[in-house]
């Protein structure tokens, strides 16, 4: 059996190049989201840890009811929520911004 040699049409070449460009843009968008989410998680951890730990030592109700596990759960929940919210918003904003950059490439033949 012999292989058929099929020449690519310019449309196919453009769609492959366009696909590579879209994949690179998606990777960049997701990377920006991860970085922004990580920064937000660090900030949220600090902003939550200080009052949580201070209240667990100073307030009688918190001292009685918030053990170390509860404190860690409060802090990690806020950090995780901040990460996912900020990462999602960043990815969507970056994708929206990039979709308006080159509107002619978004139209598929």
Describe how the helices and strands are arranged.
Blueprint: H1 10-58, H2 60-65, H3 68-101
Helix pairs in contact: 1-3
Describe this protein's structure.
This protein has 109 residues and is mainly alpha-helical. α1 packs antiparallel against α3. It is 82% helix and 0% strand. It has helices at 10-58, 60-65, 68-101. The protein has a domain at 30-98. The model has no long low-confidence stretch (mean pLDDT 85).
Number of strands: 0
Structural class: mainly alpha
Mean pLDDT: 85
What multimeric state do the chains show?
A: single chain
As residue ranges, the low-confidence spans are none
Give helix and strand order, one letter per element, not per position. HHH
Helix content: over 70%
* Helical stretch tally: 3
Calculate Rg over CA atoms.
24 Å
Q: What's the end-to-end separation, in Å?
A: 34 Å
Note the beta-strand portion. Answer: under 5%
**Apparent shape:** elongated
Largest sheet: none
Task: Using brief descriptors, characterize the structure shown.
single chain; 109 residues; mainly alpha; 3 helices; 82% helix; transmembrane; Enod93; Early nodulin-93-like; transmembrane helix
């Amino acid at each position: 059996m012999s292989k058929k040699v099929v020449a690519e049409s310019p449309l196919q070449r453009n769609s492959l190049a366009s696909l590579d460009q879209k994949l690179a843009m998606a990777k960049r968008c997701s990377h920006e989201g991860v970085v922004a989410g990580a920064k937000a998680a660090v900030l949220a951890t600090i902003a939550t840890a200080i009052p949580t730990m201070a209240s667990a030592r100073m307030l009688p109700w918190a001292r009685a009811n918030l053990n170390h596990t509860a404190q860690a759960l409060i802090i990690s929940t806020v950090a995780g929520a901040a990460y996912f919210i900020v990462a999602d918003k960043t990815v969507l904003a970056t994708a929206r911004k990039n979709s308006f950059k080159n509107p002619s490439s978004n139209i598929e033949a």
